[in-house]
Specification:
Blueprint: E1 4-8, E2 14-19, E3 25-32, H1 46-53, H2 63-71, E4 76-81, E5 86-93, H3 97-109, H4 115-133, H5 136-148, H6 162-167, H7 170-180, E6 186-192, H8 196-206, E7 229-234, E8 239-247, H9 255-266, H10 273-281, E9 288-294, E10 299-307, H11 312-328, H12 333-350, H13 354-368, H14 374-382, H15 386-396, E11 403-409
Parallel strand pairs: 2-6, 7-11
Antiparallel strand pairs: 1-2, 3-5, 3-6, 4-5, 8-10, 8-11, 9-10
Helix pairs in contact: 1-7, 9-15, 10-11, 11-15, 12-14
Length: about 400
Amino acid sequence: MRTINSFRLSNGIRVVHQYIPTTNIVHCGIFLGVGSRDETPKNQGIAHFWEHMAFKGTKRRTSLDIIESLDSIGGELNAFTDKEKIVFYASVRDRYFERAVDVLTDITFKSTFPVSELEKERGVILEEMSMYFDSPDDSLQDELEALIFKNHPLGMNILGSEETVKNFRKKDFVSFFDEHADSRKIVFSVIGNVTLDDVERMARKYFERKPLMKSNAKRKRFQVYKQEEKILQREVKQSRCAIGRDAYPLLHENRIPFYVMSNIIGGPGMNSKLSLSVREKHGLVYAIDANYMAYSDTGMFAIYFGTEPKQVSKCMKLINREMEKLRHRRLSPSELASAKEQIKGQLALSEENNLGLMIMMGRAIIDHDRVPPLKEVFEKIDNVSSSMLQSVANEMFDESKLSYLFMEPLNK
């Protein structure tokens, strides 16, 4: 059984570690409890832009030095920004663990945001935005978020707008970091063939020397959801459709039951209710899926699919029929047992991906201040009853509360 250890440094930064002696690879990452939802309409996109600029130079390294630092040894250095977190992470052979930590801390805490690199990266991000608009699946999700979280930072595009991206200056990145950096919301996550002693030594050398940082910035809570419907016209051949609404937050008692229910109706398995009905039985879509994302104070449930414009109405009827079945009929004992085993198997398989596991650990420490063992998660899943599933289905699949987004071909 794998053992996960965590501890807190004197400046408030937390460290989480899992030792795996059967690999030669170490995955490690720095997690910052700040994301795109901490922006305002005037500076939307700055968290993502700041993540990009962190790679463009520090007091010790040029952008080329940063690129070469791990690429030259066959390692990987990357980052991502989401609604509530910015993450810098690296994967290297265990012998280069300290080099990875050195580079990660350098780009996270010592970026200089060189003006010459700023202009180049601005162009890169504008190209990224163009590429995003050319991807209907990506833009559909963001458009649905904007519909559900209307007039709230959670509904703003992580990339920002063309106007804000064009106007960011060096001082904006410096002030954003100064305003939101908080040692209590920073986590260093490590998994691989390095011992706890090695991790403690690296943490004290590279993290504990950092001065205590405190932020007084307050997140705007999401409070009011209103059902909406919207039709967009895009240069697409299929109609792209999304159904969604707000959902339970991270610490809600219904989070696990609804996670199970979301998996039943549209999870990754080909045997999900929607896949069996809309794809396998009627052949109307190539793919249809549902997902549930929980945030600190709210969440989002969504169903996505693409089909021929003339088949949208039929797809919608089939989807609503499957949701109504789950609202009005409890799962049988065998159906419930099968659903539980399926989701437990999916979670167990995900633990085989060490990079994904390292990211999960970092997220868990920020969100819960602990990493729940898989056995504990399984026990919570086993405690889910058919009546609990029917209860969350009745609440979350209420047709009058669902928002609808349709991305139609221009010539329709």
